[in-house]
Amino acid sequence: MRDRALGSRNTRVSTHASAARAQVWRAALTSAALALAACLVTGLVTGPAFAADAPAAAPPAANAPGPHYAPLSNGLAQTPPMGWITWLQFAEDINEPLILQTIDAMVANGMRDAGYVYVNLDDGWQRYKGERSKHPLEFDPVKFPHGIKYLADYAHSKGMKLGIYSGPGESTCAGYTGSAGHEVQDAAMFASWGIDHLKYDSCCSHKDAPQPVVEGVFRTMSKALIATKRPIVLNACHCGWVNTWEWAAGVGANHWRIGQDISDDFDYPGNREKYYFDVLDLIDRGVGLEKYAGPGHWNDYDMLIVGLDGKSPWLVGAGASNVEYRTHFSMWSMLDSPLLVGADVRHLDADSLETLTNKEIIALNQDALGKPATRVRDDGLVQVFAKELSDGSWAVALLNRGSATADVTIAPRKDLQLEWDRYGVRDLWKHKDMGPYDIPFTTEVISHEARILRLWKAPEPAAGKSASAAVPGAAAGQAPGAAPLVAERTSDH
After folding, report:
1. Which of the following is catalytic: 201, 264, 281, 300?
2. Same domain membership, residue 31 and residue 62
3. How many structural domains does the chain have?
4. pLDDT at position 470, please?
5. Residue 153, domain member (yes or no)
């Protein structure tokens, strides 16, 4: 389901009439039947890893599909995809100049160099509204007079990539022609255009479908994409229903939504319109799902709302403070969610751009080990999340969900089960090194803030000397200063 407020903020195309729901349900069954027939005739095999990417890690056992299917993999997205997507700010109001200007802006403002390489068209690029059985899938020649390949070529010339949107139903969430029954044809078309990412959205067409049907439609498109031999990342968007995380990696999806649509809120009481999730809702939703994510297959916490400021004409929500947006970005990075920005990047304010381009936070999201943070302590309004990194260090998020400033302590031995006698600490937002310490570290965390720290084992000092606590691999990008061993309550204030 999508936030399809195309007539007004309170009108949602995702609410279908009974007849339309029945029609797309029949289409879903037809697609599933075609997929099953293809399996019986040809069998399913693991797709090849593409030369541009490292070999895919094997999906966790919990992700394996049913016994009648071999797992699929395209070998892509060894780290979570980063980029921009049209929907949250522009919905259907997209066109060629917008995409070209966005690519140029992301090059000029440093976002591309920070890792944001995907520029993704969401729903609304298509020419026709209506069922696929009545209309072909074509780009809108008014919105995109030079075609989609022109945009892909331009993105590639700038060192970036282009994504596109479709769905397995007769029509999409916004009512445009879908890919039902034409998966092979559409995959080949996307590949011929130079597409690098496909958001495949079943939230409306298959909202009430059982898991085998939903799994089948994603498998069908995944096979079709792999068959093109072009590296196209697959986003399986099903709004966190039918436990997508348990099987999506096995059908070749590179990331999948774990919940319903995000609103532009940090902590809204309940769910807006009895549907939307705020930032804290989605953080809670992901607890316990970490084991399903890893290189090549990621839990998707939905798009980034940083920079929307409650002003999107299409998305519900009152906006958030700079602190709250920073916490949102920090936690998505810690949890290894794809980082797809939803705001208009041509006009980002300084605070939003600083948040989105903090390379030390991005490095956590893009770490080669690919282990999402887990919640290691829950004290109610204060929670601690920890993430192991490839160089042996650990990232820690001290999250204050409450309305008052709190003193929060992290103890590597107790909280992380690390046999470290001494350790160094770096604050990744202040870009400040502290320590080494031999006792728990305590710091103030203001309301709705997540303090993001990087901890590493410090060497023992030689007899009569003090040892510095250098960041492993110079991850911070500068030589940390030595500090005396602290033998009392530690704090960075």
Report:
1. 201
2. yes
3. 2
4. 55
5. yes
Q: Angle 173-175-130 (CA atoms, 0-180°, nearest 5)?
A: 145
| β-pair partners for 423 | 437, 457
Lowest mean pLDDT among 10-24, 126-140, 356-370: 10-24
Note down the domain range covering 458.
374-474
Q: 360, 341 in Cβ contact below 8 A?
A: no
Looking at residue 62, its pLDDT comes to: 39
- 316-337 tens-digit pLDDT: 999 999 999 999 999 999 999 9
Q: What is the CATH number of the domain that holds 110?
A: 3.20.20.70
Would you mind telling me the total number of residues written for the chain in this entry?
Answer: 493
Question: Which backbone phi and psi does 139 adopt, to 5 degrees?
Answer: -75, 155
Look up 427 and say whether it is catalytic: no
Mean pLDDT over residues 288-306, rounded?
98
Same domain? 136 vs 250: yes
336 given a catalytic annotation: no
Q: Which of 196, 261, 300, 309 is catalytic?
A: 261
C-alpha to C-alpha distance for 107 and 113, rounded to whole angstroms: 7
Q: Answer whether residue 199 is part of any domain.
A: yes
Asked if residue 46 is part of any domain, the answer here is yes
Residue 486 lies in a domain: no
- What DSSP line would sit under 253-314, residue for residue? -SEEE-SSPBPS-SS-SS-GGGT-B-HHHHHHHHTT-GGG-BTTBEEE---B-TT-TT--SS
**Would you place residue 478 in the very low, low, confident or very high pLDDT band (cuts 50, 70, 90)?**
very low
Question: Within a 10 A sphere around the Cβ of 269, how many other Cβ atoms?
Answer: 7
The token pair that represents 124 in the structure block: 């609304």
Tell me: do 361 and 232 sit in the same domain.
yes
Among 103, 115, 52, 120, smallest CA distance to 365 is for 115
| Residue 68 CB neighbour total at 10 angstroms | 10
